[in-house]
Amino acid sequence: MTSPQMDVGEYLSRIGFEPGSGPRPTLETLRSIHTRHLLSVPLENLTMHSGELIRLDLHLFYDKIVKQRRGGFCYENNGLFSWLLTALGFQVTLLSGQVKSGFTGCYGPPLDHLILMVVVEGRSWLCDVGFGSAGFSSPLSLDTADPQERGHCMHRIREDTGMFYLEWQSDESSNECKDWDVLYKFTFEPRSLEDFTKMCMYHQSSPSSIYFCKSVCTLLKPEGRVTYIGRRLITKTFTTEGVMKHTRDLKDEEIPLVLAEVFGVILPSPLTPKDEEITPPQVKY
């Protein structure tokens, strides 16, 4: 039953989705709201770098993302997105992913990342609105190992002895024969939001977590992607010739204005910019 404090129509308005007579649980609807969420709600961890604690509570997610027009990291974005999909009549299963760090080359612990499996018209789809720059703009089919093009990126899902690997070809690679790089691995074991409580704290306290080591905010744009990290603003623009990348150094006093103007994010407390090296985890997963 939908909580009176959480309204589907308000969420859809937040992401700019105009359903007309009302959205139905179809593949077309799933694709549309997945993309609209990514174009409207940033992936960001600024709460933990402005003196506050993130707790796994759907009502808090809703207040932050819909009411305050903020973003969140994977547990918040995908957690709230799963509520929306369920309210719209979709069959949703929460899954655990383990991200392979681009900085350390190591996988995160189990329950490192929250992702969603959605079944529509007898077919299974991977949804993820909480991953960032290497993510996919619309759901990926879980029923094929073939490459799947989403926007300017190519992804595929490879299975090996019961473990599934999401891989991509980097949008910045200039090679004609691009390598496939693993983004994260996962299984189909159903999870609940509460299962991720310990890892939610880990990401707010561990030097092996990118979220603890770096203040981040990133948003998909129709023409590319814009990312704030530490004291830098990185803009990617997709062209017919490839990806054009521009990096701008920021002064501390510029950051709140950039967050507001570029991402629509206004923080209730002062931000402490952070961009430290990530410590590889002692335990290999």
Write the layout of secondary structure elements.
Elements: H1 8-14, H2 27-40, E1 43-44, H3 58-67, H4 74-87, E2 91-99, E3 113-120, E4 123-127, E5 140-141, E6 148-150, E7 153-160, E8 163-169, E9 181-186, H5 197-202, H6 210-213, E10 216-221, E11 224-229, E12 232-239, E13 242-249, H7 255-263
Antiparallel strand pairs: 1-10, 2-3, 2-9, 3-4, 4-5, 6-7, 7-8, 8-9, 10-11, 11-12, 12-13
Helix pairs in contact: 3-4
Would you kindly provide a brief summary of this structure?
The protein is α+β, with helices and mostly antiparallel strands and 285 residues long.
Describe this structure in words.
The chain has seven helices and 13 strands. The chain has 285 residues and is α+β, with helices and mostly antiparallel strands. It folds into two domains: 8-202, Arylamine N-acetyltransferase fold (2-Layer Sandwich), CATH 3.30.2140.20; 212-263, no CATH class. An eight-stranded antiparallel sheet has the order 5-4-3-2-9-8-7-6, covered by helices on one side. The chain has a five-stranded antiparallel sheet with strand order 1-10-11-12-13. α3 crosses α4 (74-87).
